[in-house]
Write a structure and sequence with these properties.
Chain lengths: ~110, ~120
């Protein structure tokens, strides 16, 4: 049982816009920034979004993040086949003095 | 180019010990906090441990507290994870990850991972 809650799966067709939610609490998302990671099959995770809505250099602007209260979302517009991957949200938790991850969302491009 | 290369994984019996290493290059290692994150086969990511740049602050996940010890050698640009009293549930790929900023869960670079299998 992960501290942050994500839907286990999401899907979309090429060109569509999909969103992935991440729900937490006041001790993590409610009081700290949220980061998103993309993990392509068989590879290490990669930082996709940091500080709620910032993209590292090299990440396409098709990827965007937002946060409101104790929830956050990752949006992918203009979906492409290469976006098929697992996506994880993460935040610092002030109560646990821990990093907490969501359980991950497997994105399928139909 | 930033590189993190883990080593030391392998097959170990329950109750055994293993020491993982992470060799860092391409950046000023002594300026960054570091973490270990693991992923059990077919499962999600689980944060394991954090160490600040000077080793003054260390955190552990409850699941490994008292059994695992994180350390670093800034002169050797290396991060370590000493794992004792290993259990089957510790079986996972272990990644080292650089912290973009402390206490933010923001890991901007990851290694390729090293597999630890705990089995008799």
């Amino acid at each position: 049982q992960s501290v942050l809650t994500q839907p286990p799966s999401a899907s979309g067709t090429p060109g569509q816009r999909v969103t992935i939610s991440c729900s937490g609490s006041s001790s993590n998302i409610g009081s700290n920034t949220v980061n998103w990671y993309q993990q392509l099959p068989g590879t290490a995770p990669k930082l996709l979004i940091y500080s709620n809505n910032q993209r590292p250099s090299g990440v396409p602007d098709r990827f965007s993040g937002s946060k409101s209260g104790t929830s956050a979302s990752l949006a992918i517009s203009g979906l492409q086949s290469e976006d098929e991957a697992d996506y994880y949200c993460a935040a610092w938790d002030d109560s646990w003095r821990n990093v907490v991850f969501g359980g991950g969302t497997k994105l399928t491009v139909l | 180019e930033v590189q993190l290369v883990e080593s030391g994984g392998g097959l170990v019996q329950p109750g055994g010990s293993l020491r993982l290493s992470c060799a860092a290059s391409g950046f000023t290692f002594s300026s960054y906090s570091m973490n270990w994150v693991r992923q059990a086969p077919g499962k999600g990511l689980e944060w394991v441990s954090y160490i600040s740049s000077s080793s003054s602050t260390i955190y552990y996940a409850d699941s490994v507290k008292g059994r695992f010890t994180i350390s670093r050698d800034n002169a050797k640009n290396s991060l370590y994870l000493q794992m004792n009293s290993l259990r089957a549930e510790d079986t996972a790929v272990y990644y080292c990850a650089r912290d973009l900023a402390s206490d933010t869960a923001c890991f901007d670079y990851w290694g390729q991972g090293t597999l630890v299998t705990v089995s008799s």
